[in-house]
Amino acid sequence: MNNTIFLLAQNTENFWRKLPGQGLVIWVVIGLLLGIALLFAFTQVPSNLRRWIIVGFTFLAGLPYVLAYLWPKPIGADLQNDVPRNLSEQIGFTINQAIDPVGKITNVLQAFLLGVGIFSLVRVHITKVRRKSENWGFSTVLLVCFALMTTVGFMDWRQRKFMDDNGLLNEPSNWGFFQYANDLMFEGMYQQMDSAMFSMIAFFILSAAYRAFRIRSVEATVMMASALILMLNLMGALTYAWGTGIESLVVQTGNPFFMNFKLNVMADWLRSTMQIPAIRAIDFGVFLGALAMGLRLWLGLEKGGVSS
Amino acid sequence: MFNWLQGEQYLDTGWIGIAVTLMVVTFILVNIRRANKNADSLFIRRISGLNAIDDAIGRATEMGRPVLMVPGIGVLDAISVQAINIFAQVTKTAAQFATPVRICCANAPVFAVAQEVIRDVYTQQGVGDKFTPETVQFISDQQFAFAAGVSGIIHREKVAATFLLGAFYAESLIFAETSNAIGAIQVAGSTQSTQTPFFIAACDYVLIGDEFYAASAYLTRQPVLVGSLVGQDWAKIVIAGMVIFGTLFGSYEMTGMTTEHRTDNQGVSSMTPVEAGPDGTVTPERVKKSDTMVNRFFNPYTPEELVTIEREKKPAEPEAETGGGGE
After folding, report:
1. Centroid of chain to Cα A106
2. Which of A19, A73, A138 is opposite residue B320, by nearest beta carbon?
């Protein structure tokens, strides 16, 4: 297997990116040793100092994003190939170039944590099977499917990536066992079950709507009336008939005010005047809350919960 | 004059975006300082969804059934961290009554953080042995596989209370209706405004919008959190004032007349004069929304010379040789 294939994607050499070769291997080994040393050092740190290490790392990790937001980003710049025109642009280039490596460190951490998640999943279900707990049959199905899907998916990926230079496996007529098995399990089973789960929402919406629209209070009545107008507006024949009636009323009375009672006008008014401003007001609150939360985490102001 | 301060991020919204952000940050930090001095003077209104937490846990304890919590299906961000913070408070109460807890995660980093936090809560309450691998579980990072897994747990374990707090999408109603079907008390809150109506229809208590972020301040009364909440309220008042002023002033401006209109084409702004009539006279036209000062405030005028910048290119690097390393 060609191990350098992943590294060849990085075509520019700089402090963060090294091209394949002897030097790269040395850097990888140095990085690995440094990582192990840091990990060991962190385990030895007294627990009262750990919080400050986490706060420090959080601050450093967030700093490039905050600076990138505040400092003027050079307009229309190609960060890899352009030369900055002045000091302001030089700082802007440096800040924006730092975001990519920081993001990659996050990706590496997430990959490790995915392993932790899979370990938890497998451990919970193996324990259930071993103890023959209630419903242990479901756990067996999960473990067997997990092992099959992982094996088949990996083998299919490996064959397509490293043993199919001419792209023959793109044609189903050239497929082997793993391609057929992967197709059956992913397209034939997983995707279908996923769609089935999604389509069940229709029935849940029906039962939830039934309960919500029972007229029990003033609020429920207003909601019911609004929903009725919006739903009726989606029925073409009814909208047409109602609109024609309103238009003839306007002709008879000579009062154009009645045009406001056409179904599509009322529905548009409800959406643009009532619904959208309400959603935007809620979103303002949500974004302010997220900003405050992010600020507290970044500056290490919070105590307890996740920050402890 | 200040060309060196022109940045790509200011082309869309101008300096107003950054100015408002800095204003909000200042409000929050000032109020955290105020709260640190005297937290009791700051008031938080009653949030019924959070008052229901004790009732929900009490019911679960009486019935001897677990409390289920789901921090949404989002990645590890402010939303899921806030959800875990609330769950830590709920778990604290549940651990005191030895009520079993089930936290289901759809994202591995969220799971890892939740596991650590909840384990700490159990340890701090002196019931570390009650924390089991089932307490915090990673189910799946696929949306509907996760929905199926959590629904299965709700049905099999007949949970007495569910807390659905975080970033939810289409699966929200599956959880809410499944819990409703088995008669569980439900407290829900989503930062996705599209999912809030579903929760309102199906759940007993719903945290709407920023109530979700107010929850930990409400539950813990920590000065930092309470101060931050008051800072957010100050920001909301200022933003509401800006909206009202902008609406009135913009409406007034649009009653005026002008002889040139602003046009924006592919990020470049220009002023287009009103066409002269056959006799050569220019008749002023009504001011459009794009001509108003309020609009210019949020969409700064971007001349072509600002966005077409020629920069020198770096000299081509020689072919990298094996054995290289470092600059």
Report:
1. 14
2. A19
